[in-house]
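Dear colleague,

Thank you for sharing your sequence with our group. We've completed the structure prediction you requested, and as agreed, I am returning the results in plain text so they can be pasted directly into your records. Please verify that the sequence below matches your submission; if there's any discrepancy, let me know and we will rerun it promptly.
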Amino acid sequence: MYRIAVALLVFLSVVLSLPALADGHESTIADIVVASAEAEQPEFTTLLAAVSAADPSILAALSNPEAELTVFAPTDAAFAALAEALGDEAFGAILSEEGTPRLNEILLYHVVAGAVGSADVVAALESRMTDDMGHVSVPVVTLSGQDLDIAGVMGDDGLDLGAGITIAEANLVLETLDIEASNGVIHVIDAVIVPELRSIADIVVELAGGEEPEFTTLLTAVGAADPAVLELLADPAAAVTVFAPVDAAFAAVEGLDEIVADTGLLTTILQYHVFPGTVYSFQLGDLVDDMGQAAVAMANGSEATISVSDMGVMIDGANILLDLVDIEASNGVIHVIDAVIVPGA
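Please find the predicted structure tokens below.
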């Protein structure tokens, strides 16, 4: 905590030298970004350009005095590094009108609901269990709907700030913590964090065609079902959780060829593997009751049972493979299961 206090003092000395930012408590997050971009030593100029090019709702959210948001704000150098990695043409396309949906996803991936200060981040990390290397992380769901990990390293006396704190693949810049605004807080990061931009349908197709193919039967089944199934999995505006059976699970189903040939039955079964809403593995425990069970309505209208116990997590009679959960997509998340589940089975 001492290092955080020192970092805050360093940042405060910088902020007080910029009159436009000295009244952060009276300025919204949008006001602070604009003021910084127009300062004598400008910062956030590319962030401002990106917000201006995105859907107007994003600027409205950052300007809303009633909002409570946390923004992880990439520096101009961070955006320059992304432009170099992608190439100027590809980077420019993201900022173009045609690239706006992708830009929206990227920007919203940098925003979390609620004002989360540095002390809150440290407290959350110090409350978690470490792995064998002393690493600790906290998953956080962003306004894009996708989650990211805030991570650090634990030392003998608590969180080792000398090792840094990461926000996904970016480093939190400890010298510029807690830029307070009237509607939240800004933390500066040294890289642009990019969410998964592929849809669930894209990921299934890619994995089915990989060197070690998986989901080949799932892909065949989706292609044989009512087109509405594929449309949902490809819909960029969807937010769904797919419990995806492995190929071996389909191989164990008796009469699979007859099921695939029956479009209505096949569609019902596939929709029974889709939950309307994005639920990550760390949120599954929040769904269940004191008995460790929850009935959830699936996309076909039937209820499936999720159960959490010391033996693992299941949906109906299928095990959710905990080493293959949280496969993120732009329109939801995939959890892999070891059996095909059937409504009413």
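Summary note from our side: The CA atoms of residues 7 and 185 lie 16 Å apart.

Kind regards,
the structure core
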